[in-house]
Amino acid sequence: MSVVEQYARAHVVTDADLVEEEHEAVPVILRYDPETDPRSVRVRLPDTHEWTFSRSLLEQGLRAPTGAGDVRVWPCGRVQAVVEFHSAQGVSVVQFESKTLLRFLRRTYMAAAKPVPH
To answer: Which domains are assigned to the chain?
Structure first.
């Protein structure tokens, strides 16, 4: 089983940000390691915060609002999805294109299904 790592561009808004018309897209790393934790995905934000949460939470959140613990996911219109992270430092709201997250999830399921070579 191989690690899936995908770079994505997303818009990040934290509760510390000033109100602005448009936020710049930033690089975000999506990661899945079936050997270490086959049920979880990781999202690393540019400020080196890394969040680990259920892969099924991400999948469900693309269809309907859902959340567990400090992470919430919901669809935003027809082509975007929002992942919201809560921490002691505040709240970060990360807006992705849904197709980016779907492509990542598809790759994670393919990686998990690959047989281990002998």
So the answer is: 4-113 (2.30.31.20)
